[in-house]
Amino acid sequence: MAEEKEGAAPEAIIADIQKKITDAFEVFDHECNKTVDVREIGTIIRSLGCCPSEGDLHDMLAEVEEEEPTGYIRLEKFLPMMTKVLMERRYRPIPEDVLLRAFEVLDANKCGHLTKEELVKYMTEEGEPFTQEEMEEMLSAAVDPETNTVRYRDYITMMVVDEN
Questions:
Q1: Which of 33, 83, 85, 136 is the most buried (most CB within 10 A)?
Q2: What is the pTM of this model?
Q3: pLDDT, tens only, 123-140
C-alpha cells in the first residue's frame, strides 16, 4: 500500500507543476492557440518563481524555439522544458542574507544605504548590466524620493521572493 502512494506522488507533483506552467502560459496566450509571443517567455518563467540570468533565458529560448523562428513559442515545446527546470529547482531566487551581504559590500561607508548614483553605476557598469528600462524600473521601486538614496534593507524586503 505504501509503495503505491510513493509511486503516485511524483506523478501528482508533476501534474501540479504542469498545471501551474500551463496556467501561467495561458495568461499570455491571447489567441487561445497554445502559443505566446517569444518576448513574454521571460515574464512567464519569472512568474513561476525562477530567476534566470539573461544568458540562461536566451539558452532556454533556444531550446524551445522552432527551427525557423516564428516569434512565438508553443506550449507543447515549453511545457517539458519548464517542467524539468522546476523539478530540478533551477534558477532559484537569491536568499535574503546573500542579497544583504552583496549590498553591504557595495556600501563602503557602512551607512545602510547607497546613493542613487552609486546604484546606477554598479548596476550598469558591473556584471550583467541593466538596460535603461530595467534601471528605471528598479530606481522607481528602490530609491527613497526624499533622500535620493536606496535603504537596501527595506529594498531587499521588497525584492525577496517567498518560495512557499
A1: 85
A2: 0.70
A3: 999 888 888 998 999 999
